[in-house]
């Protein structure tokens, strides 16, 4: 989990990135069917608008730009499409003398209401649901005396469905919203606020999981410290120091594997956990050291370097014993002049 943990906004973004392509494909398929039948009615053009909105929405979600504006626009489109569709169905029922099946509205209405409560706040969603109910009832009231008893009964069921689901979701909204916020807060408790990666509590959780599986797969720990960080703060200020830590995090993220766990232990200390033996972890640490030494940090006129201690899990190890050993090796690197890696290849008299 080298990337930062997901916020509520990230979760919504991922949902859009996953769901919108499927909805887009389904809408295009329906459009082709209508095109083949030469049915160029309001419903056809509304679906064209949906396709455009889905493409724009997916792009906004991907770029993380104006997602809220897209959600409001989608609500407007969905409500408009619902009104147009139910009106067309009733008109076709009157013109053909057949009993149009309104069962699809009973299926889709709850989804529209759920989406409404997902996008809007509780009070706003309640008012929006009333608008949806009005849009659903308006065509039926207008054509009421021209409708057959069967269609009128089906329409009444649709009205009741809209009202009931709106009331249920109105009361359920706060419970669901609270649960989501609690889950997000739990994740935030494991997140370093400056660098947006795991904090030391999260590192402890990661390491405990790895220790439980250590009989089946080896793992190593890189304990990393930014050299002379106090001097950077003194010379450039604490704001620049924070920027250096954030930039360092980004560089590390870009140069480790996705399955490696990167966390901030505290201050200028970071820990990387990886499921590789120590000799391989040492080579990765050396690569990171060279990359950081050659990286030009924004606003800093001198090279910034790191010192690293590397160790791997040994039988009988605990979280504390691994970290103590990695910390000892980190301090060997610092005592020997900094900007270096200490691991098994650099520790004499130690058995493999």
In brief:
The protein is an alpha+beta fold. It contains 11 helices and 5 strands, in the order αααααααβααββαβαβ. It folds into 2 domains: 8-189, no CATH class; 200-346, Reverse transcriptase/Diguanylate cyclase domain (Alpha-Beta Plaits).
Largest sheet: 5 strands, mixed
Shape: elongated
Radius of gyration: 30 Å
Q: How many independent structural domains?
A: 2
Lateral arrangement of strands in the main beta sheet: 2-3-1-4-5
Number of strands: 5
Strand residues, percent: 5-15%
Would you give an account of this structure?
Helix content is 66%, strand content 8%. The protein is built from eleven helices and five strands, in the order αααααααβααββαβαβ. Residues 1-5 have low confidence and may be disordered. By secondary structure, the protein is of the alpha+beta class. The protein has helices spanning 8-36, 42-63, 67-96, 103-119, 122-142, 149-189, 200-212, 229-236, 238-254, 278-294, 319-335; strands spanning 220-226, 261-266, 269-274, 306-312, 341-342. It folds into two domains: 8-189, no CATH class; 200-346, Reverse transcriptase/Diguanylate cyclase domain (Alpha-Beta Plaits, 2-Layer Sandwich), CATH 3.30.70.270.
Top keywords for this entry?
Alpha-Beta Plaits; elongated; five-stranded mixed beta sheet; alpha+beta; 5 strands; 8% strand; disordered N terminus; 66% helix; 2 domains; 11 helices; 352 residues
Write the layout of secondary structure elements.
Layout: H1 8-36, H2 42-63, H3 67-96, H4 103-119, H5 122-142, H6 149-189, H7 200-212, E1 220-226, H8 229-236, H9 238-254, E2 261-266, E3 269-274, H10 278-294, E4 306-312, H11 319-335, E5 341-342
Parallel strand pairs: 4-5
Antiparallel strand pairs: 1-3, 1-4, 2-3
Helix pairs in contact: 1-2, 2-3, 3-4, 3-5, 4-5, 4-6, 5-6, 8-9
């Amino acid at each position: 989990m080298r990337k930062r943990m997901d916020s509520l906004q990230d979760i919504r973004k991922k949902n859009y990135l996953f769901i919108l392509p499927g909805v887009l494909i389904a809408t295009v398929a329906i459009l082709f069917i209508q095109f083949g039948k030469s049915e160029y009615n309001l419903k056809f053009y509304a679906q064209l608008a949906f396709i455009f909105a889905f493409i724009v929405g997916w792009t906004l979600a991907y770029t993380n730009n104006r997602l809220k504006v897209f959600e409001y626009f989608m609500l407007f489109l969905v409500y408009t499409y619902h009104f147009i569709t139910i009106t067309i169905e009733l008109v076709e029922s009157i013109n053909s003398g057949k009993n149009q099946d309104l069962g699809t509205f009973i299926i889709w209405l709850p989804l529209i209401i759920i989406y409404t409560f997902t996008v809007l706040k509780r009070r706003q969603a309640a008012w929006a649901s009333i608008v949806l109910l009005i849009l659903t009832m308006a065509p039926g009231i207008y054509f009421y005396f021209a409708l057959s008893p069967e269609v009128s009964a089906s329409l009444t069921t649709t009205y009741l469905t809209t009202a009931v689901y709106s009331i249920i979701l109105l009361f359920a909204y706060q419970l669901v919203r609270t649960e989501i916020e609690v889950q997000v807060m739990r994740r935030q408790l494991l997140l370093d606020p400056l660098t947006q990666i795991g904090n030391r509590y999260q590192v402890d959780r990661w390491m405990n999981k790895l220790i439980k599986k250590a009989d089946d797969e080896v793992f190593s720990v890189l304990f990393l410290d930014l050299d002379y960080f106090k001097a950077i703060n003194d010379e450039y200020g604490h704001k620049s120091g924070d920027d250096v830590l954030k930039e360092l995090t980004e560089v590390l993220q870009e140069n480790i594997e996705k399955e490696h766990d990167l966390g901030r232990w505290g201050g200028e200390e970071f820990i990387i956990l990886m499921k590789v033996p120590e000799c391989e972890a040492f080579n990765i640490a050396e690569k990171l050291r060279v990359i950081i030494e050659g990286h030009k940090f924004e606003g800093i006129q001198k090279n910034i370097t790191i010192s690293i201690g590397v160790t791997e899990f040994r039988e009988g190890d605990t979280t504390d014993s691994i970290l103590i050993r990695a910390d000892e090796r980190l301090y060997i690197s610092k005592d020997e002049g900094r900007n270096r890696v200490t691991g098994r290849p650099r520790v004499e008299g130690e058995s493999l």
